[in-house]
Amino acid sequence: MAIFQNKRYLKDIRKDLRNHPTKAERLLWVKLKNSQTGHKFRRQQSIGLYVVDFYCPALKLVIEVDGETHSDSSVLQNDAVKERFLEGNGLIVKRISDADIKEGVEGVALLIKQWCDELTTP
User: Fold this and answer.
1) Nearest-CA neighbor of 13 among 51, 66, 41?
2) What is the arrangement of strands in the sheet containing 50-56, beginning at the earlier edge strand?
3) Which segment of 6-10, 18-22, 26-30, 50-54 scores lowest on mean pLDDT?
4) 3-class DSSP state of 57
């Protein structure tokens, strides 16, 4: 999987996304950074042609934060293509709405920790 990650030509895009996160991404990153779930997450990780919001390499877990634009049909279609690519390469994709994060980031963080725990339980 390493050959798919952090393509050099996506570096500026990743950097811009890290420097200008949405409010929901910023709130969630506070809960994911420093292995607070028990696992290391990266933010704005490129995988193939795509940049994912959060990625835990040890669990092959991708967390995507869906804002208001994700209800648009063309965005939904692009999300589906991206998700098929990621899952086709052995990754698990979980989607969370930015509204859920803004309304209760603590609960979302607990949910992500639960997903992590489920993925590490034999």
Assistant:
1) 51
2) 42-47, 50-56, 61-66, 92-97
3) 6-10
4) coil
Question: Could you tell me the two tokens for 77?
Answer: 């279609």
Helices assigned H by DSSP within the chain? 11-19, 23-32, 73-88, 98-120
Pairing of strands 61-66, 42-47: unpaired
Does position 29 have pLDDT exceeding 50, yes or no? yes
83-100 pLDDT, tens per residue? 999 999 999 999 999 999
CB of 95 closer than 8 Å to CB of 15: no
Query: Which residue type sits at 102?
Result: K
- Looking at CATH, the fold of the domain delimited by 2-120 is given as Endonuclease; Chain A (3.40.960)
Domain locations in the chain? 2-120
